[in-house]
Amino acid sequence: MTSSALLVMDVQRDVVDLADDGSGYLPRLRGAIDGARAAGIPVVYVVMGLRPGDPEVGTRSKVMANVLRAGLFTEGAPGSEIHPDIAPRAGDVVVTKRRGSAFSGSDLDLVLRARDIDSLVLTGIATSAVVLSTLRRAVDLDLGATVLSDGCLDTDPEVHRMLVERLFPQWADVVTVEEWLGAIGTPRPLS
């Protein structure tokens, strides 16, 4: 029997401010979270967290240099908090990662193994960053994967479209939040 977890990745205040396109992303994601809870599916929040002074950031990483220039992800900074519209509840796990993938520098693998979770449902910002990196690692770990296409968001809509329509279906099931809620027995988002 497959045991799944919903991953809510990098939906932190500053990231939402940069990426939210006014399409109703946060309410849709809230519906997925509420649906997962109603179906007994664990919700695991993944946040990017860099220590003050950025000791884990090397000089050769172009991606991390861009993150530092943008002033994102410093642990304890208000902008690095999980967005309050989708905030964790008691019993939800929050995992801190140090790089793009939810597995990089985190204890996510330990959390999944401890709960006998063998399948992931991926959501988050950005499709071309945390979602892509985490999906690739999940495939390498032989985990089942579903990507909620409208539960992901990217600052480049064309890159998002290409990933969810062309690349991700090669590695995972790709469905909308509404389709996934119907499949788990929660036909519409809960309020």
TrEMBL record:
Any Pfam family hit: Isochorismatase
Keyword Hydrolase: yes
Ranges where the Isochorismatase-like domain occurs: 4-179
Signal peptide: none
Gene Ontology MF, one: hydrolase activity
Presence of keyword Chaperone: no
Domain of life: Bacteria
Keywords, alphabetical: Hydrolase
UniProt protein name: Cysteine hydrolase
Organism of this sequence: Streptomyces seoulensis
